Amino acid sequence: MGGLKRKIEVAAAAAIVVLAASAPARAETRTACTALDICYCVNSDFLGAIGANVARVRALLADNKAKGKAIGYLSVPLSPAGGGSFQINSEAAQTIASEVERRFGASSAFILNPGAEGSEAMNGASGADYMYMWTQILEGRSGHGEDFDFFYFAGPTDFSGYFLPPGKDGKAQKIDSGQVEDYFGALDAFFDKRVASDPAFRKAVEQGNISKPGFRLYYGLRASVAFSYGSHDEWNIARLLNARRRGAADYGIANQLSIFFDGRPVDPGTFESATTSGDAGRCVK
């Protein structure tokens, strides 16, 4: 009996070894910190893609700055967390970016849309991986955000311009115009139309990943940087950059980065205040 038990134990141990050898290797994570001393727990497999995209986007910004354009950064929620859709958030981000450039003048302003410049090599990356990349881009080589002139933080009013049809003047309608009624009803109608026309969206609904009530609440009330992990970090980055500028002889108060939220300039007391961190944080082992 003892010999049989021993054979079973040896066989079980061998099976464990085989399973361990055949299991995919877990990605190694490490704490990576930026010039502003903001740290993230990143996947080492993406460090090469992050470095390449930082260089590419910096070149893109330099090219637009050489054309005399003001350079802005669009902070916008892309994750579906909370009831949204990544695809719809990406489409809305493009609409918002285009609207901001139209507002300032496309020949005079360029706004960096993270939804359009994330790099396909980053597919599968975590929020922390992306934020380690965007933080390096935002802070610039000197840590003063020298490649940028303003931040634009998207809010519910910005998103409403994507969901509502154009007004009689051809411009996007927004919920702050005073002329929009039953915005929730408009979101329900958008949802129904999307289910009928988009197989991928319809599948997400059928699988329970998206629901009409959740969609309505998210885009009616929470489609904003206020509910985004990454945008919380980006707000703190903007605050730190302005703090560094205020204390630098080459910048000072007069040359801080301008901050907009939901279409309006933010007052100094607000943009000098920190918010809760999102994806920022060291690896815990």
DSSP, total strands: 7
Evaluate the radius of gyration: 23 Å
The main pleated sheet reads as: 5 strands, mixed
**H/E element string?**
HEEHEHEHEHHHHHEEH
Strand-residue proportion: 5-15%
Global morphology: globular
Strand order of the largest sheet: 4-3-5-6-7
Helix content: 40-55%
Mean pLDDT: 89
Q: What is the count of helical runs? A: 10
Decide which structural class fits the backbone: alpha/beta
Note poorly predicted spans.
7-24
Distance between the termini: 43 Å
Explain what you see.
With 285 residues, the chain is of the alpha/beta class. The protein has a domain at 29-155 and 224-271. Helix content is 48%, strand content 11%. It has helices spanning 2-22, 47-66, 86-104, 127-139, 156-163, 183-197, 199-206, 212-222, 229-246, 268-271; strands spanning 29-33, 39-43, 70-75, 109-112, 150-153, 258-261, 264-265. Strand 3, helix 3 and strand 4 (109-112) form a beta-alpha-beta unit. Helix 4 packs parallel to helix 9 (229-246) and helix 6 (183-197) packs across helix 7 (199-206). The longest helix is centred in the N-terminal third of the chain and has 21 residues, at 2-22. It starts with a helix and ends in a 14-residue tail after the last helix.
Which properties best describe this structure?
two-stranded antiparallel sheet, 10 helices, 285 residues, five-stranded mixed β-sheet, 7 strands, alpha/beta
What is this structure, in a nutshell?
The chain is α/β, with parallel strands linked by helices.
Write the layout of secondary structure elements.
Blueprint: H1 2-22, E1 29-33, E2 39-43, H2 47-66, E3 70-75, H3 86-104, E4 109-112, H4 127-139, E5 150-153, H5 156-163, H6 183-197, H7 199-206, H8 212-222, H9 229-246, E6 258-261, E7 264-265, H10 268-271
Parallel strand pairs: 3-4, 3-5, 5-6
Antiparallel strand pairs: 1-2, 6-7
Helix pairs in contact: 2-4, 3-5, 4-9, 6-7, 6-8
